Amino acid sequence: MDSMTYKTAEEKSDEQIITDSQKAASNYNYDTVSGSIYSGQGDVTFSQTSSLAPMVKQPDALQTAPQPSQIIIVGTAHVSEKSVNEVKDTIEREKPDIVAVELCKSRYDSLKGEVKDSEIPIKDILSGGKIYYFLVHLLLAYVQKKIGDEMGVQPGAEMITAIDAAEASGAKIALVDRDIQLTLQRFWSKMGFFEKLNIVVTLVASALGIGSSKNIDIDNITNQDMVTMLTDELRAASPNAAAVLIDERDAYIAGNLVKIAKGGNKKIVTVLGAGHKTGVEKYLKDPKSIPPMSSLTELPQKRFSFMKVLGIGIVALAIATFALLIMSGTPIELLLLAFGWWFIINGILSSIGAALAKGHPYSIITAFLVAWLTSLNPMMAAGWFAGLMEAKQRKPTTEDLKEVVKLESFKELQQNNFFRVIMVAAFANIGSTIGTFLGVYVMVQVTGHNPIDLISAGLTAIGL
């Protein structure tokens, strides 16, 4: 019977928690760890630290029965020098076969500096609502960097230390966290409008240093009482965010640890944030409670959001105004005049937005030319076109993206090609939205109609 035992780095007692990991593995379709690099959702990704390093130390030749795999959990604060030292000391003391870290492949590559400089697929970012969770990701990274600067510790330093210590000892590295992009997509899609608003306002305030702050000792964040307090605050502010960022990842990490432990005879040091420690331990005590990996990696169905309702409402207002003007018997000359004002007002305000973001002249012209049409189509936005034109001229790269969180002033941000594309898209959209409301008002005025009479005439025309 394959089994495993886990303990935290601080525990010194001989008590061990034994579970039937083979049975748990079969329940969740775990694969035997063979030393090859795993890929695909739900699998553990191993970073090959050395072509000569064995996947697992071979048991003694006289040993006939496999011993339980041992999982040692080190809970850390991501910007704490104390955590960095604890990680290093634990790996050097325990000499594990495998070091599991709270990273996915993309975050591992980023920490290792292995991300090649290439152009960013701006079209994918600007479409499908991805721009919003992408901006939240940048805000989260910026806030964490700001805390790290104050503490004199690079964000993720404890993970880098774990990786370096594993490489130095010949241990394998297991990347056991869910892909960051998948987590952010689930995070954003599962929250309601007011939850999103609350999260964004909180992050912006933190980034700007606005609002009340608590005197929290970073070195004490790994204390369980402190962890409970902080996670409870997140759950109160945004239950859905806590479920995706904490609970789901607890299950995902625990599932991958059970997979690694299968077969026995392995010592695994696991380095993860203190906020995940309790949840992961709970699942390791009862692997049967780990939900299927497929349920943690699928994207939720798109919902009919408040922002979509608002966008469609704005478009409906503009189209209804044109329809009412026509049904009220407005002369063609006045209709053409009204349309001219609509075109000019939408175009000017959208292009002003692009100009305020210091967009390229071609981007400003693009915003001017498309704003009148995008305001009448809920599937399009002036900012998308202006942003794509800006990206074509500036060609932002992954290096620009990495530099965003390092910049200290808004002036520096405006000089960053990636941030400028995002700003051009956002400001052009804001200008176009304002232009829609103002354009509707001006159209009614230049045609000489009273809004109430106009609505009454429209209702009469359709027999109401």
UniProtKB/TrEMBL annotation:
<feature type="transmembrane region" description="Helical">
    <location>
        <begin position="362"/>
        <end position="386"/>
    </location>
</feature>
<keyword id="KW-0812">Transmembrane</keyword>
<keyword id="KW-1133">Transmembrane helix</keyword>
<protein>
    <submittedName>
        <fullName>Conjugal transfer protein TraB</fullName>
    </submittedName>
</protein>
<dbReference type="InterPro" id="IPR005230">
    <property type="entry name" value="TraB_bac"/>
</dbReference>
<dbReference type="Pfam" id="PF01963">
    <property type="entry name" value="TraB_PrgY_gumN"/>
</dbReference>
<keyword id="KW-0472">Membrane</keyword>
<feature type="transmembrane region" description="Helical">
    <location>
        <begin position="306"/>
        <end position="327"/>
    </location>
</feature>
<dbReference type="InterPro" id="IPR002816">
    <property type="entry name" value="TraB/PrgY/GumN_fam"/>
</dbReference>
<feature type="transmembrane region" description="Helical">
    <location>
        <begin position="421"/>
        <end position="444"/>
    </location>
</feature>
<dbReference type="InterPro" id="IPR046345">
    <property type="entry name" value="TraB_PrgY-like"/>
</dbReference>
<feature type="transmembrane region" description="Helical">
    <location>
        <begin position="334"/>
        <end position="356"/>
    </location>
</feature>
